[in-house]
Write a structure and sequence with these properties.
The chain has about 150 residues and is of the alpha+beta class. It is about 20% helix and about 50% strand.
Amino acid sequence: MTERTATHGTFTLERVYDAAPAPVFKAWADPAIKARWFVGPSDWQLLERSIDFRIGGKERLSGRKGSGIVSTFDAVYHDIVPEQRLIYCYDMRLDQVHISASLATIVLTPAGAGTRLTFTEQAVFLDGYDDSGSRERGTRILLEQLGRELEA
């Protein structure tokens, strides 16, 4: 039997976007907009996407990487304050192996004519899964993709 472990990690990322809080929030809340930027790398193939954006609602995103590994993101929304805050918990799986559980908090604050987005994630990586910073790197890429979406 594999040894059961739980390794914790936390990171915070900040971005300032040249868009007011309303369109930044809408990019997280509107399923059609989110589908354009909340995606995997270029070799990633979408398998399933669903979003029920409300407190208690669920989101699922599953896709196959170029390596053939299927990654699955399952989230539940716990707090939604339009144009200000979003809190959700999510589980990640690779080929059905539960690799992590996380609490993500997004805070939007006005920054001049734009918006400061502060993203904080508190994660627990399970049973020997060595993240080696890949979650933070992946989140940085997603926030860059969000920035390009807001510029479009």
